[in-house]
């Protein structure tokens, strides 16, 4: 408990006088009073100044362009479409699309951060029609074996010569694109994600592939890429996506929490911390040799040239941050209504 102190102090008062219908005049008075007060309170007062900070937990989005894209056709089983300006899905001829993203680029983009979500996005190049009155689903599957944009054909994962009409592949370079047995199919089932396609749809189709990308980061998936097909290839409906040859090509959007290795601007701040002032006081010209470090308030007045001082322990500020600082706010609660 602090000793009481007697002093002159400037006190302000304000009152309102109503004039006419809706005009209000505020009259302020400044009164110099002499009094004794025991205004000291413990520094544990929750109303004391606080430094509000935002810590890490920043979600940034990195965009990776496809490193390769093509589509397969059962009707042209030894021809490659890697250089085409479109990526086709179609019942007739079983058109299926393949997408490739460099796994090391994915790993680099995430860096020391944590993957929050991953999406494969493709821009529609044609307006879908004949997809039925309520639309039909297309699906994205993980590829189970390595293939390549300019070597993939219906018959071969890697055709050694795409300039002929023969399947130049065997063993791991061949695949069973016609198989109805999930164990033999070169894509993983069930699908990673499906999307409904409806007649007249425009814009971008987005698939949630978070689990697939997480598996690549964990080292449990080689990241061979994805296959997109109609869920029911016996029903009508075809569409084309824009290939990377035409652009904007397929992309992989990675939402990453903290320390991204890739691009993208700062996302929303999802964390905050408060640091309480380690010291506060004010100085007063009118009482130039007195200290107010234990006063319950930080008084700012014109008379006497009061000036407030607030300090924070740098180690406490550093300790409160879990990552990069986004912004900091100094909060000073008003203990006494301002006037004059
Ligand atoms: Ca291509
Ligand atoms: Ca060939």
Task: Give a verbal description of the structure.
The protein has helices at 103-110, 210-218, 314-320, and strands at residues 5-19, 23-37, 50-53, 59-65, 68-72, 86-89, 96-100, 114-123, 136-142, 193-197, 204-208, 226-230, 239-242, 251-257, 273-276, 279-283, 307-311, 328-331. It is elongated, with a radius of gyration of 34 Å. By secondary structure, the chain is mainly β. It folds into two domains: 5-57 and 269-331, no CATH class; 59-257.
Q: What attributes does this structure have?
A:
single chain; 340 residues; 2 domains; five-stranded antiparallel beta sheet; elongated; binds calcium ion
Topology of helices and strands:
Layout: E1 5-19, E2 23-37, E3 50-53, E4 59-65, E5 68-72, E6 86-89, E7 96-100, H1 103-110, E8 114-123, E9 136-142, E10 193-197, E11 204-208, H2 210-218, E12 226-230, E13 239-242, E14 251-257, E15 273-276, E16 279-283, E17 307-311, H3 314-320, E18 328-331
Antiparallel strand pairs: 1-2, 3-15, 3-18, 4-14, 5-7, 6-13, 7-12, 8-11, 8-14, 9-10, 9-12, 16-17
Bound molecules: calcium ion (2 copies).
């Amino acid at each position: 408990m602090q000793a009481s102190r007697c002093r002159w102090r400037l006190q302000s008062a304000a009152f309102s006088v109503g004039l006419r219908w809706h005009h209000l005049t505020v009259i302020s008075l400044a009164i110099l009073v002499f009094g004794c007060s025991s205004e000291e309170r413990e520094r544990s007062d929750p109303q004391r100044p606080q430094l509000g900070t935002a810590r890490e937990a920043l979600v940034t989005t990195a965009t990776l362009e496809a490193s390769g894209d093509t589509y397969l056709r059962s009707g042209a089983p030894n021809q490659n479409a890697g250089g085409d300006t479109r990526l086709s899905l179609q019942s007739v001829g079983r058109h299926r699309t393949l997408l490739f993203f460099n796994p090391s680029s994915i790993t680099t983009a995430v860096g020391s951060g944590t993957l929050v979500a991953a999406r494969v996005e493709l821009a529609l190049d044609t307006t879908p029609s004949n997809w039925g009155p309520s639309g039909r689903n297309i699906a994205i599957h993980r590829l189970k074996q390595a293939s390549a944009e300019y070597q993939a054909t219906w018959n071969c994962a890697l055709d050694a010569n795409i300039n002929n009409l023969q399947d130049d592949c065997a063993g791991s370079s061949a695949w069973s694109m016609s198989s109805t047995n999930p164990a033999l199919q070169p894509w993983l089932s069930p699908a990673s994600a499906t999307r409904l396609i409806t007649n007249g749809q425009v814009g971008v189709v987005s698939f949630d592939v978070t689990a697939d990308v997480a598996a690549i980061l964990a080292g449990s998936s080689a990241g061979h890429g994805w296959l997109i097909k109609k869920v029911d290839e016996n029903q009508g409906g075809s569409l084309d996506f824009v290939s990377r040859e035409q652009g904007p090509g397929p992309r992989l959007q990675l939402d990453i929490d903290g320390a991204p290795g890739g691009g993208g601007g700062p996302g929303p701040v999802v964390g905050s911390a408060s640091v309480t002032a380690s010291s506060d006081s004010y100085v007063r010209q009118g009482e130039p040799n007195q200290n107010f470090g234990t006063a319950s308030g930080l008084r700012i007045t014109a008379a006497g040239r009061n000036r407030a001082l607030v300090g924070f322990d740098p180690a406490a500020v550093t300790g409160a941050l879990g990552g990069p600082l986004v912004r900091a706010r100094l909060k000073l609660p008003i203990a006494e209504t301002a006037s004059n």
